[in-house]
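TOPIC: backbone geometry
CONTENTS: sequence, structure tokens:
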Amino acid sequence: MACVLGIETATPLLSVAIVGPEGLRAERAAFGERLHSVRLFPFIEELLRDAGTRFEDLSGIAVSQGPGSFTGLRLGVVSAKTLAQVCALPVIGIPTLLALAAPLLSGGIPVCPVLTSRSDEVYAAAYASGAPEATVLVAPFAAPPVEAAQKFASFAKLLLTGEGAWAFREAFTEILGERALFASEVFNYPRAATVAFLGRQRLARGAAVTPFDLLPEYLRLPAIKGRRGT
């Protein structure tokens, strides 16, 4: 199988990566939401050069589909759709919370990825290892931190990961006690390398979609729309 380009713009950590049959070929990352629109395409150009890859060598484009930053998701998904159309490539949407949880799923306990959203809520979900892909134990949702912790109260033990877990660690610990473990802050944000790996697996299973069918998954209205009440 040829290479897959991964794009991750759902959080403040912008990253792009290319994976090939041998594994990760190259990755670029930078922190700061204002960098996303400025650095995304220069990063992709640098990535292709470093990986010794051309657009013609790609077999698909995988993009983080949400939930996450409204502006970041729109940029990433529209960019992936545009590149897929121009290069006649299939595109694969990867749930952002799955991309955050995936590197930690081999530990044998449920993994609960948590990201902050604007409006004092978090985006969260719960996954367990599975085949051919992780099993969804709790589907992605948006809720206040205390309510999110209560949704996980039935787990005997769980591994919380993501910057939202650390931001609201006190709330999760108060409700879940010693059952709640916290992953290292190294794993605070989803990475494009994981998006590309998951995309390659889905592509092999024939799970790609056309660019017209790919849409961001916001889970909640953008803040500006909510304030206007429209």
User: Anything to note?
Assistant: The domain at 98-187 is CATH 3.30.420.40 (Nucleotidyltransferase; domain 5). The radius of gyration is 17 Å.
